Amino acid sequence: MQSGVKKVVLAYSGGLDTSVILKWLQTAYGAEVVTFTADLGQGEELGPARKKAELLGIKPENIFIEDLREEFVRDYVFPMFRANALYEGTYLLGTSIARPLIAKKQIEIAEKMGANAVCHGATGKGNDQVRFELTYYALKPDIKIIAPWREWDLTSRTKLIEFAESHQIPIAKDKRGEAPFSVDANLLHSSSEGKVLEDPAIEPDSMVYMRTLAPEDAPDKPTYVEIGFEKGDAVSIDGEMLSPATILAKLNELGRANGIGRLDLVENRFVGMKSRGVYETPGGTILIAAHRAIESITLDRGAAHLKDELMPRYAELIYNGFWFSPEREMLQALIDKSQEFVAGTVRLKLYKGNVIVVGRTSPYSLYSQDLVTFEDDKGAYDQKDAQGFIKLNALRLRTLAMRKRKGGA
Known about the structure:
With 409 residues, the chain is of the alpha/beta class. Helices cover 41% and strands 19% of the residues. The protein has helices at residues 16-29, 47-55, 69-82, 99-113, 128-139, 157-166, 244-257, 282-298, 301-320, 326-338, 369-372, 385-408; strands at 7-11, 32-39, 63-67, 117-119, 144-146, 182-185, 190-193, 223-230, 233-237, 240-241, 262-268, 274-280, 344-351, 354-361. The strands form 3 sheets. The protein has a 5-stranded parallel sheet with strand order 3-2-1-4-5, sandwiched between helices. A 5-stranded antiparallel sheet has the order 10-9-8-13-14. Helix 1 packs across helix 6 and helix 7 (244-257) crosses helix 8.
């Protein structure tokens, strides 16, 4: 164990694990604990977290609960969506993008409260430990980090409950049994992993899905929605200007009702193993389809293709925890530059799990009906020019073909 820990800022949910961690920090380290609970739109009441912390002896001035929903969407989710970021082609990075914000707030509180250590509840097998700790070190390189799951001997739920009982930590009745799977949630998504989901050959039970209707149970009538964009960010729904968090919340409602955003995937964790997870990202699934649609008429081909080439690298940086790295910031500057004229409106049809783009318009559109029409284009495009264009592009192919012919003779 690290020595010299006098005061530590704990990322605290109020659940069994972090309540046990809180008491363990007090007993194993003899440290003064400051708790930080973030409201990222996970849908849980946060008042009980304050009461639980007070019950465990935390002074009121050492309890921090912050509503970060707007900051989360504005400064983390939206910049990521400007890049159309998908990890391994499918995952919308809902858990990954939340960790740097939580960790940043922990460091800010540590500096404010004079704490010399921070603590998280991530396990030693997952990605979150990396995401938290890379952020800690990026923002405060001399910070001391405590990761209980890599230190203590409470290696089972039974041991956690025994520790809780021996230290008078309240345990809700529904928390005493073994949870069938673990859940992480915020305004962007929910993810479910472990236990009954570990076999990737078995279809998830319907109880796993908490944020969406099954597509087959969604309405038989499609829902239409219009999303307005400015500089690559969604700013309105059906003509009504809304804040970033409000937009995402409303899109979540629309996605939920229409069975949109379910994903069952096996991903490659940064720590080396493969992991099966079930994700629900209803609003994000709608948003990324709309964003790509508005880019399709406002981005130049070269810019669009360059963005698509860089996107996997950008997504991997976020997945691996490098949000505060110079390379992510450099890529972000390029991405943001590309979004200067990504503005306008996209109309979508939502139907039984599908997001279908049915219209897009922009004052900065590069789409020219005069150029693409099969009718008389009034001289805007001389089709005869295509012959020389094709011959020039075929020159190297013709040269290669002639060499092959000679070699075969």
